[in-house]
């Protein structure tokens, strides 16, 4: 009787850049059932307008996340002791069809959200946030704290193309996924296409805190305001790695000098304590432009910082419910 040998994954069905190690060296599971927090990869950069490569981000962040240890050295939070966390793998993507790629991400994320697990995802370019929000905010809009060099509220690129990594939050507001009066964007900087490029966002009620204002005020003041803006309502946290200065995070699609240091980025995330986080992401890690894995390491570390905040939030709620 002939042996039935294992076969390689068909690259026409699952892209070569999708796969496992695992985030934080946690178990890889097929379903988010029973999890408090689901760590998710979204290896897709169909919305990138210049330097593609963020599709490789999840795999490299997984690799660098092996350097994360069990407990946070400042807060003392040990996330794996207070929340059930696992790597649920990569969402299905389509690297050659943008609209189908968005649809696949949304459908897969809906299944995760339906289990009650909070998704903490790694992209992928920033357009990946839109289908995640479609799943998370299906029933009611959410607020957002957004760390980025760019507002990502442009209308279209290359004619009338409405879906790029520079448009997700305009689409999210138009679709009723985001409450713009509960949105704050921190670290915005760099040259723009038009002097009034951020006019639409401001007119909707988005609070934009430019890097220059952050430098004047500092992290504590800025985050006190940000947390006040989102209040106690359901909030999405989106962290674009290009908010960090390219001297410390060169591996990204649209680098902008004058950004946060990695230390400042950690401080900002730690000050999310008390926010009602329903989902979070780290996006735009592009390994082809990285040096010695430093951007992927920054992404993995910010992911761990977010994980600690989310796990502590879950643990506090359990204590209140007892």
Report on the structure:
This protein has a single domain (23-321), classed as Arginase, Chain A, CATH 3.40.800. Strand 5 (178-188), helix 6 and strand 6 form a beta-alpha-beta unit. It starts with 36 loop residues before the first strand and ends with a helix. Helix 4 runs parallel beside helix 5. The protein has 322 residues and is an alpha/beta fold. It has ten helices and eight strands.
Short account of what is shown:
The chain is of the alpha/beta class and 322 residues long.
> Kindly, what is the distance between the CA atoms of the first and last residues, rounded to a whole number of angstroms?
59 Å
Give the DSSP E fraction (strand runs of 2 or more residues).
Answer: 15-25%
> Largest sheet, order of strands side by side?
2-1-3-8-7-4-5-6
Portion in helices: 25-40%
Q: Per CATH, what is the topology? A: Arginase, Chain A
Computed over alpha carbons, the radius of gyration is: 19 Å
Task: Please state the second-level CATH architecture.
Answer: 3-Layer(aba) Sandwich
CATH superfamily: Ureohydrolase domain
Report the principal-axis shape.
globular
H/E series: EHHEHEHEHEHEHHEHEH
Which class best fits the helix and strand makeup? Answer: alpha/beta
């Amino acid at each position: 009787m002939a042996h039935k040998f294992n076969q390689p994954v068909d690259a026409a069905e699952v892209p070569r850049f999708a796969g496992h190690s695992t985030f934080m060296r946690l178990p890889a599971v097929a379903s988010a059932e029973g999890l408090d927090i689901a760590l998710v990869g979204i290896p897709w950069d169909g919305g990138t307008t210049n330097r593609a490569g963020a599709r490789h981000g999840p795999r490299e962040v997984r690799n660098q996340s092996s350097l994360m240890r069990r407990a946070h050295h400042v807060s003392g939070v040990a996330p794996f002791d207070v929340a059930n966390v696992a790597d649920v793998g990569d969402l299905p993507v389509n690297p050659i069809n943008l609209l189908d790629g968005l649809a696949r991400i949304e459908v897969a994320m809906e299944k995760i959200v339906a289990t009650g697990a909070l998704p903490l995802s790694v992209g992928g370019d920033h357009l990946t946030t839109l289908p995640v929000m479609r799943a998370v905010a299906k029933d009611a809009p959410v607020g957002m704290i957004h760390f980025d060099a760019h507002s990502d509220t442009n209308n279209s690129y290359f004619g009338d193309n409405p879906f790029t990594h520079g448009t997700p939050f305009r689409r999210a507001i138009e679709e009723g996924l985001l409450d713009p009066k509960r949105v704050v964007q921190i670290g915005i900087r760099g040259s723009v296409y038009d002097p009034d490029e951020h006019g639409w966002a401001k007119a909707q009620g988005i609070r934009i805190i430019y890097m220059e204002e952050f430098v004047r005020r500092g992290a504590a003041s800025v985050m006190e305001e940000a947390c006040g803006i989102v209040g106690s309502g359901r909030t999405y946290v989106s962290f674009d790695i290009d908010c960090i200065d390219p001297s410390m995070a060169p591996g990204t699609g649209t680098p902008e000098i004058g950004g946060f240091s990695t230390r400042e980025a950690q401080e900002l995330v730690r000050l999310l304590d008390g926010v009602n986080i329903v989902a979070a992401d780290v996006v735009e890690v592009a390994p082809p432009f990285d040096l010695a894995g430093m951007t992927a390491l920054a992404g993995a570390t910010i992911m761990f910082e977010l994980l600690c905040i989310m796990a502590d939030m879950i643990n506090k709620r359990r204590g209140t419910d007892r």
